Amino acid sequence: MGQAEQVDGHFDVLIVGAGLSGVDAAYRLQTQCPGKSYAILEAREAIGGTWDLFRYPGIRSDSDMYTLGFPFRPWTGEHAIAGGAEIRAYVEETAQLYGIDRHIRFSHKVVRADWSSAEGRWTLVVEADGRVRRYTCGFLYLCSGYYDYAGGYRPHWPGEDRFGGAIVHPQHWPETLDVAGKRVVVIGSGATAVTLVPALAETAAHVTMLQRSPSYVVSLPAKDPIAAAARGWLPRRAADTIVRLKNVLLGMVFYTFARRWPDAFRRHVLKGVRATLGPAYDVDRHFGPTYKPWDQRLCLVPDGDLFTAISSGRAAVVTDEVASFEAHGLTLRSGERLPADIVVTATGLVVKLAGGIDLSVDGAPVRIADKLVYKGMMLSDVPNLALAFGYTNASWTLKCDLTARTVCRLLNHMDRHGLTRCMPRLRDPAVAREPLLDFTSGYVQRAAGIMPKQGPKAPWRVHQNYLLDFAALRLRPVADEAMEFEGRSPPG
């Protein structure tokens, strides 16, 4: 073996990504599979994933922290909807507290992973320290999220070269950008846009949220009064459990109500917006989507901060489309002109699954779009590989932690029975294939050609339901009819 092909380390498990799901996976491994060696390969130079990358003004969670936080280290912050810096510190502190940070190899970007059945292991090609490194592992665990960290989705419009101001995408916010006294236009209507507008409006001369079509925007208390009461009256562990369960169940009820009675849900949401903005405001035009609730993710605004900014006159919503950029602003399809010194393109993400890693099994490339997802955590006919993929209608960590616990159960089952390979086997190639995500959001539609699929029934059906997943992943055997095992005979 030549110098370039030397293996720089072998581990029982390699985790890719040191964000929320990667730290959660590491904790579960070292507590439930204490005999397993592991390392985390992180492409960036810091812990935190999303919460380290995004630094735009007002960045905050879009789920409550009692369910987005780690179940083994409950969130103790004051706010249920927390800021990005708070979340980043929480993830870093958790990694340090449990010694997980000592297992992280920073600036290690995995570019290829090849499974060899003959060797019973994965070989990873990694760019690190200006050279190529190689690592091997028995099990590969992808916790690298679902979007491209290199850049977000950015449409281009006529006349951009004429614009005299700055054009900024939130995914890479310039540290030196000063909006004080400036006229800012934020293009977009999703979670990023509704977060940015009130934050920018604190110092900008004026902020306009320009949207082609509205989203459902729901106001929630920044602080959870039930959590505060529970922690005041109950032992800490009991209070944390009750608050977490309460939020899980409320989220499920909220989602079920929205999907079963969409018209009633819509009326309820718009009634809340009218109560804040007043009867003269055109709520239907600017906050009444044409799609059904949860066809796209809801936007949460703590204590209605977006509505407060609009009511104060510091911010406005315009529902229209960009026709072209001009020297000092934008011209819209309607002919209206929006003056601007800074334009923020909050236009979405670029989906990149498995961190963009080129996967192969015994020399054959793995095309993820051709695969079915097994229990929302593995890919059909791909051995010894799991991926962390959270909920679209609830906190990301809820599903990722279930996945991490199931991976540990799977690894322990294999050890007990002397097995070295596990693989979800799709035995019926004619099984119906459906989109993985039933979402109309732009980033999901743009990624339709690269996303894996789901089937019509378990275990190939992806449930956006914590209780169903809890039953499937925690209570049922890991050795089911779809899981194929191979390996040596157990020791006698």
Keywords summarizing the entry:
single chain, 492 residues, alpha/beta, FAD/NAD(P)-binding domain, 2 domains, nine-stranded mixed β-sheet, five-stranded parallel β-sheet, 13 helices, 29% helix, globular, N,N-dimethylaniline monooxygenase activity, flavoprotein, flavin adenine dinucleotide binding, FAD
Describe the structure.
The protein is α/β, with parallel strands linked by helices and 492 residues long. The protein folds into two domains: 3-149 and 350-486, FAD/NAD(P)-binding domain; 160-345, 3-Layer(bba) Sandwich (FAD/NAD(P)-binding domain), CATH 3.50.50. Helix content is 29%, strand content 23%. Strand 8, helix 5 (191-201) and strand 9 form a beta-alpha-beta unit. Helix 7 crosses helix 8 and helix 11 (396-416) packs parallel to helix 13. The two termini are 36 Å apart. The mean pLDDT is 92.
Main pleated sheet: 9 strands, mixed
Q: What would the principal axes of the Cα set say about the shape?
A: globular
Which fold name corresponds to the CATH topology of the largest domain?
FAD/NAD(P)-binding domain
Radius of gyration: 24 Å
> CATH superfamily name of the largest domain?
FAD/NAD(P)-binding domain
Which class do the helix and strand fractions yield? Answer: alpha/beta
Q: What is the percent of helical residues?
A: 25-40%
Strand content: 15-25%
How many domains, as an integer? Answer: 2
Family: Belongs to the FAD-binding monooxygenase family.
Pfam family, one: FMO-like
Cofactor: FAD
GO molecular function, one term: N,N-dimethylaniline monooxygenase activity
